[in-house]
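Support request, please re-run this one:
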Amino acid sequence: MAFLWGAFMSQAMHKQIILVAVTLFVSSAFVFSAPDTPETRRREAERYLQVSPPKALFEDMADKMAANLPPDQREQFKRVMTTQLDIAALSKAMIDSMAKNFTTDELKALADFYGSPR
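Re-run finished. Output below.
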């Protein structure tokens, strides 16, 4: 009888230990997740734009779009697209839009991914 009681207790203890481990694991997901506030969203959006600057994005876009134009119009098109844009206003609009539509964790993932070595 004592043997059965000991076996039952070890099974109960084993289940308890597993339950505690699972509870700690699940609750740790909330600890490692960044708080999702307008401030944290804005900070992560700004960090994303630091690793993926809008100016470089628009230069690349103008380059690719210019390829569809006649050769004699390409340079002028690229010059207008890259010098006539208000990058500061575009950056602010991008940050505002990203902070409105993405969570902090999503923005952090974007910044981490695009900021990692390629």
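Helices lie at 2-32, 38-51, 54-66, 71-83, 87-101, 104-115. The two ends are 65 Å apart (CA to CA).
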